[in-house]
Amino acid sequence: MATTVQMNSITDAMNLSPEERKKNVTKISLTTGLEAAFKIGIVSIPTALVLTKYWKPFSRNLGVSGRTAVAIIPPLFAFGLVSEQVASRLASPEAYASHVAQQKETKRIAIHHQIANYAYNYPIKTLVGLSIPMVGGIFAYKGTSSHLNTTQRVLHTRVLGQASVLSLLVGTMLFHDYMDRHGPYTE
To answer: Which of 49, 79, 133, 160 could bridge to 33 as Cys pair (CB 3.0-4.6 Å)?
Structure first.
């Protein structure tokens, strides 16, 4: 969700007083930071809840404050990092005017098209972002098998993890090939 500020032209953006520009930059950085926190929170909070419910070492070794921190700290970090980066990037009048012009040109597309474009533009990041939680989940699931010792769990995780990562790799490359033929989503 990109925050837009109503401006008729780049000259309007350049002619804002420093206080008005600061107010607009603060609004943009706050909204962008909250968006990043929401995106990270969608992953971290359910992950902490699932780990607490289904993985006994997690709930046994961490107290309530530790489990809460695992859920809450990643969104707070994302909020602080992204909002600071946006605010510092838009600090100069020229950068702010460029941002306003870019927002006027950019058309909004649906979230699933944005995700598809991201997977197309960054296939390695997509593969890593999907593979690490998958292998971690396999290891956690194998941890519930009481008949396996740690070495056997690691070996089972490696074999299943390799198969799942290769499946993700094939799927990602097929998707990338499809997007090569049809082009990224623009509207």
So the answer is: 79
Element (H, E) at 146: none
Amino acid identity of residue 92, one-letter, is S
CB-count exposure of residue 180 (10 Å: 0-12, 13-18, 19+): exposed
Q: Give the separation between CA 117 and CA 176, rounded to whole angstroms.
A: 10
Contacts of residues 51-55 at CB distance under 8 Å and 24 or more positions apart, as own/partner, are 51/140, 54/140, 54/144, 55/140, 55/143
Count of helix runs (H) and strand runs (E) in the chain = 8, 0
Nearest to 34 by CA among 85, 76, 72, 6: 76
Global pTM reads 0.55
R_g of the chain, CA atoms, integer Å:
22
Digit-by-digit pLDDT tens for the chain (187 residues) are 455 555 555 566 566 777 888 888 899 999 999 999 999 999 999 999 988 888 888 888 888 999 899 999 999 999 999 999 998 888 887 888 777 777 765 567 788 888 898 899 999 999 999 999 999 888 888 877 778 888 888 898 899 999 999 999 999 999 999 999 998 887 6
What contacts 149, CB < 8 A, 6 or more positions away? none
Distance between CA 31 and CA 2 in Å, rounded? 8
